[in-house]
Each structure stands twice: as C-alpha cells, then as structure tokens.
Design goal:
Length: 206
C-alpha cells in the first residue's frame, strides 16, 4: 500500500513532496482545496484534528507536522541513507537542526514580522538575531548539516530557510544562498518542484 499525502501546492505539504522524493517511497497525492476550507472537512479532521496540511497516511498510521513526517520517512524508508543510525553520534546533530526549524526559526520570524513583544529569556526561540546566527552555525564551513553527507535534516532546515528567503522574511547571506543552491541541485528536489508547479497549473493557481 502506497503512502497517501493530503496535500495542496500552496501549503507545507509541498515540502513534504520533496521529503517523499528523497526517501524514494511510493506515494499518492490527495489534493485538499485549502482555498475552500476543505482541510476542516470531516475526512481530514478525522485524521488530523488540527485540520491542516501536510497529513500523511501510511497504512493504518497517520503522521502530521511537516518535520515529524520528514523524520518518520527517513527512519522508515531511508535509514542509514537519510537518517543516521540510532547509535550514530551524528544523530544528535541531525535531530537538533531538524527540530530547530519549526521550534526556533518559524516562531522567531513570526515574532519579528508580527511585532510581538517578548522577553528573549522567556521565549523558546530567543531573538531573531540569535536565531539567524545559530542557523549560520549549522552549515558553517560544510556542505550540509552533517558535513559532506546530505540528510533529511537538510530537507527540514533547508526547506524552511529557502521559504523564508523566498518570501523576504530572512535576508540571504552568502552561506545561506550557497546552501540553498546545493539543495536546489538535488534531483529529488527538482522532481518535487516540478510536481508542485504542475499541480499549481492543473488547479489554475499559476
């Protein structure tokens, strides 16, 4: 039974397509029209009470949250290739930066651009400047998060960084731009990008 991804090309599920392409697992897309609010319909709400995308179904298992889905796919379908083994010390670095994207980068960007007034010591994401500096450190002087080896951490962290730069929420730096260019050159990313563009065209969203 193939994986089913509840999906819209203008949602975080577009990045999950890249994770699926990297993992190499067979999958099917079920388009959910978020413009009409279908993500809050009974079918999806029964699987994901948050009523949001991406929602992935693998057999009887439901996985939600983009980072969790990516890490699940790596462990189940590409262990040792996209995910370090449980006893590999690199797994700590892998998990650290995978979870940094949704728990630090996204809220720090939201706080800055929404004008939230928060105490740096009380906010789990610190400050916007410290977030940017930490993200720089994740890829400093290396090709990918784990050095020369690409992993699913790069899909999560790099995908978040690409999105934030595309929408002018994080200023590009030489290291950020070079990192994203390396990610964009991956065949799996190019396949995913082509699928997302084709789906936008099919849905009349160009």
């Amino acid at each position: 039974m193939s994986i089913r991804l509840y999906y819209h090309p203008y949602s975080r599920a577009s990045g999950t397509v890249w994770a699926l392409e990297e993992a190499g697992a067979p999958y099917e897309l079920t388009v959910v029209d978020i413009m009409k609010g279908e993500q809050k319909g009974p079918e999806l709400m029964a699987k994901n009470p948050m009523g949001k995308l991406p929602t992935l179904v693998d057999g009887d298992l439901v996985v939600t949250e983009a980072a969790a889905i990516a890490l699940y796919l790596a462990d189940r379908y590409a262990a040792g290739r996209l995910a370090p083994a449980l006893n590999d010390p690199k797994r700590g670095t892998y998990l650290r930066w995978s979870l940094f994207a949704p728990s630090v980068i996204e809220p720090a960007v939201m706080a800055k651009h929404s004008g939230w007034t928060v105490k740096e010591g009380a906010a789990g994401w610190g400050s916007f400047a410290s977030m940017v500096a930490a993200t720089e450190s994740a890829i400093a002087n290396k090709s990918f998060v784990l050095g020369d080896d690409f992993s699913m951490a790069d899909v999560v962290l790099g995908g978040t960084l690409r999105y934030m730069m595309d929408f002018k929420q994080i200023e590009p730096t030489p290291s950020f731009s070079a990192y994203v260019e390396r990610l964009n050159a991956r065949p799996a990313y190019q396949r995913a990008d082509a699928k997302n563009k084709a789906m936008r065209k099919q849905l009349g969203l160009q």
